[in-house]
Structure prediction request, 318 residues.
Amino acid sequence: MCPLEMKKNHNYSLFGGAMYKITGLFRNRNFILFLALFLGLIWDNATCFTKQLTIPALGIVMTISLLGISREIFRSPKALLIPSVTGIIMNYIVLSGILILLNHFIISDKDFWRGFIILAAVPPAVAVIPFTEFLGGNVTFSLIGCLAAYLSALMFAPAIAIGFLGTNFLDPVKLFIIMSELIILPLIISRILIWLHFESRIEPYKGAITNWGFFIVVYTIVGLNRDVFTDQTLTLIPVAIITVLSTFLSGWIIELTSRFFNVSKKSISSIILLGTLKNYGLAAGLSLALFGERTAIPATVSTIFLIVYIIWLGLKRK
Prediction:
């Protein structure tokens, strides 16, 4: 081979290697989440379009994640008991209790205080299920725990709201619609796909669909609230403190406690997520509708820290 051809092949090799690394980045979950956060903070023009896609995107992500759920799990009431009780305890006793307690001692701004009460009242993030898949946790455990927490929200959410805000603010019909769109409907569709034996065809694209589905959700939430981070940075410090304590510190304590009681590694991931993540999108929407933009700030800041927290959990697992 002549030197010219060797040089040409070498250049092609370098170009191919560079392209492989670039395409690899766009398959990397952490890079995609950081990209969504970065774009949301510097350029929010596309949110007018992507906000219409957030619920469908999250519904698709949920459907993909639920393909790994065994069809036998719902046939055993005994198998449902422990995850159901754990989901309710971790979300409404542990996490809501921590948020209310920290809110009482740290927050002086009335709007932020209301925002954290609403955050304490809502059920867990539906993203607990796909994030469990990310972290190699027990997806079945997370699914059952989420379902139980959402059903219990019909009792806990109004009780927390009435007790601290003095008003009945959460519409049970709206809660049922959200639960149907993001849990019940994806569960039904996933069962149909399994019955049709499509899960093996979807498997190669599962990671890409999930990652870019979350890209749409994260970019939209951050972009819609970009002004909060540029104009009110110092006022966000108390909110950030509560968010860090209720995720990073609380998650660490939950992990140590679970290990002490010899809980399986997969179930520990599920328990940590159920005990540290709230439905920030629902909380932000309720805050905006009932009190205004400032009340939605705790949910918005929590969404930002959620991204960092999930990336940290993924790196920690590796």
Q: What stands out?
A: The chain has a mean pLDDT of 83.
